[in-house]
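Exercise: predict the structure of this protein bound to S-adenosylmethionine.
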Amino acid sequence: MLAGGLLMSETHAPVMLDEIAELFESVPSGVLLDATFGMGGHSTAILHRHPGLQVVGIDRDLMAIAHAAHVKDTLGSADAARLRVMHTRFDGAVEALDQLGVTRLSGALFDLGVSSPQLDNAERGFSYRNDARLDMRMDRSQELSAWNVVNEYDAESIADILRRNADERFAGRIADAIVAARPIDTTARLAEVVIAAIPAATRRTGGHPAKRTFQAIRIEVNAELDILANALKDVMSLVVPHGRVAVLSYHSGEDRIVKNVLRESETDTSRPNIATPFVHPSRTAPRAWRRVRVAKHPNPTEQQRNPRATSARLRVMERCEVAA
Ligand SMILES: C[S@@+](CC[C@H](N)C(=O)[O-])C[C@H]1O[C@@H](n2cnc3c(N)ncnc32)[C@H](O)[C@@H]1O
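Solution:
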């Protein structure tokens, strides 16, 4: 339970839930990796819908791992028996799966970014909406927090983070203002400094003026972009023919990385899990993966109901059958 008697599952609306559960209709029986278990909304729907699938859920946040016990309680015993959850980052997924004796996957889901309870829980220090000490760590055992980034990085590094992680056009001004205002201990103070650094005329456009700065710092604290490409490739290497990988991304930097990895995978036949096909020299190599969905957005009804889904982009790939 969260403070106020709220169940955490009630505070995160899983994005494109039906569509994602349906995507795994055609995959072979076996194990599906939910690489971003969160509050378990997607895992629950997949377990309900596909009795032939087991789910291994991983998350780097212990709050999500603790919540898994509640998810299991709400699943019927047959579905609960098909769910295992482990605390790790998704770049440790292959190792975690190996520990469970899982070397092949029927599918994988990456629902990137943060969950609503992480954002909404004031003491986690993620959001300009709640005043708290700057934190933003998904895994609270790690040392680097938003406080360190804001108070210890030089102006050039902060500006670079704001540009790279959030396309912030006032990156230089904001970085200089942050450095000048140090020490900055709280989310409210950071928001105040950022707002003051942005030209008055642009403060009223494009949502909260500090939104991009908070996003960029969160991505830096959690190394979200640094680990994504390799983690995705490693997980994809375990997926069997006709298995599927679905990725929900929420901003352009994230989606660019996903798009590149998925595009490269179309011609990559070198993964350990598939037999190297004989290719006649006069033919082009067979495709290793095919695209099932290209950058699909949630429908307008969902976007209206759940504003956090608005920026979501879903990409889905299926591993092709390869002749031995
Ligand atoms: C958008 S939420 C997922 C919500 C989930 N699909 C649901 O239905 O409840 C993202 C989750 O992924 C976790 N996460 C983000 N990056 C991660 C990483 N690199 N490794 C493991 N978990 C990660 C976050 O802690 C968060 O709980």
